[in-house]
Hints:
Blueprint: E1 18-24, E2 41-47, E3 64-67, E4 72-75, E5 92-93, E6 104-105, E7 120-126, E8 132-139, E9 152-156, E10 161-164, E11 173-178, E12 195-200, E13 206-211
Parallel strand pairs: 1-2
Antiparallel strand pairs: 2-3, 3-4, 5-6, 7-8, 9-10, 11-12, 12-13
Amino acid sequence: MLKTVSSFSSTALTGALVYQGTWNASTNNPTLTSSVGTKGDYYVVSVSGSTNLNGITDWVVSDWCVFNGSVWQKVDNSEVIYVSNVATGTGLTGGPITSTGTVSLANTAVTIGTYGGANNVASFTVDQQGRLTSVSNVTISISNTAVTGLGTMSTQNANSVSITGGNVTANISLTNATNASATFAISSLPLVPAGYIKLQLANSTVVLVPYYAQ
């Protein structure tokens, strides 16, 4: 990080800065002398120290020591913050990192896969970090008592639906009855019906449809 300070005269330098390497400000190695140098040369402090160069004695690591053609000046990098320890919180692995390292997401108990489908839904558990900590499939099951508006739903499977009580309306009304309350022209029918179904058509006409016992 290059920090500009008011005591550093940018107009005093013409041309590019030329990096000369690192400088030990404690032992003055390589040896630097006040007011002696090549304009534009600069060193980066590798070891803090108090070597006096043109009245400057507070050298710390990463400061730049720059010769402006007349005197040595300092580009002060002492306020640069270096992080020396990075800890990893909940759900992360890899820490603490003191130099270099990799921070990764920690594995949870969730099994990799696809959840949910035509016959089931996925059930999730989420922690405070927003991670899924458990997932499972739950079979879709609707009880008979949860269905309303179709009378009594007694049986439902892939082949048939049995409904008792209530009406099914599709421009007609169906009412079941037995032959005890019906009169048939027996001679006109090849078989004796077990009863009839009363249908009220959309035009309000009521018709009787015989049915036969199996």
